[in-house]
Amino acid sequence: MKVRLNLATKALETHRRFLAGAGLTAVVGGLMFLGLGWHVYSARKVDAQRRDRTEKMRQEMAKLEVQRKELERYFSQKDIANLHDRAAFINTILDARSFNWTLMFMDLERVLPDGVRVISIEPKQVAGHVEVKLTVVTTSDEAELIFERALEESKEFTGVQVLNVHTASPSGNQSGDQKVVQLTTIYSRI
Asked: Which of 23, 134, 157, 174 is the most exposed place for a label (fewest CB within 10 A)?
C-alpha cells in the first residue's frame, strides 16, 4: 500500500478556479469586443451611405437651382411676361364662361327645403374652384337649419359658412319671411 505524503512546508495550491474564471471572462470580453466592433463597423457603413446620398441630393438640388434661375430669367423677359399675363386673363374669362348655371340651379333646387327662397346668387372663381355667395330668406328657424344641414350634407356644396343672419323687414313682407341669411359655400361640380 502506498500512502501519499506531502512533506513540503507549504501545501500545493491549485489555481484552477481562478484560471477558469479568467478564461471565461476573457472569452466574454472578446465576444463583446467583436460585437461592439461589428456594431461600429455597421454604423460607420450606414453613415457613409447616408453621406453619399446627402451629397448626391445636394448636387441634384444645385442643378435644379441652376435650372430654376434659368427659367426665371427666361420668364422674366418682357414679351414672355406679357404673354403669361394675357394667358391668365383669357383663362379667367374661359373659367367664368364655363360655369354651368343650369347644373348649379338643379343642385340647389334639390337641397332647397320648403320655407326657404333664394334672393341672390353670386358665383366667383377662387383658386380653381367656385365660391358661391347665397342670400336666402326663411320663414322659420327650422327651415333655416334644415337648409344649412342640407347644404352641408350635399356632395356639391362644401365649406358652408354663415356670414350674416338678420330679421326680415316687416314693411312689405307679405310672404311671411322672418330671416335673411347670407352664406358662402364652395360649389364643387363644374
From this structure: 174
Tell me: pLDDT of 111 over 70.
yes
Instruction: Give the domain range for residue 111.
Output: 99-187
For residue 87, is it within any domain?
A: no
* Same domain as 108, residue 43: no
Residue 132 shares a structural domain with residue 172:
yes
**CB contact set of 116 (below 8 Å; sequence gap of 6+):** 136, 137, 138, 139, 143, 144, 146, 147
Q: What percent of the chain has pLDDT over 90?
A: 29
Q: Which residue has the cell 434659368?
A: 70
Cβ-in-10-Å burial (0-12, 13-18, 19+) of 141 comes to exposed
Greatest extent of the chain over all pairs of C-alpha atoms, in Å: 142
Read off the pTM: 0.49
The domain tally of the chain equals: 2
Structural domain includes residue 88: no
Unique residue bearing C-alpha cell 314693411? 171
Return d(Cα 9, Cα 14) in angstroms, integer.
Answer: 16
Query: Is 11 inside any structural domain?
Result: no
Amino acid sitting at position 14: T
The candidate with the shortest Cα–Cα distance to 144, out of 165, 175, 159, is 165
User: Three-state SS across 95-150?
Assistant: HHHCCCHHHHHHHHHHHCCCCEEEEEEEEEEECCEEEEEEEEEECCHHHHHHHHHH
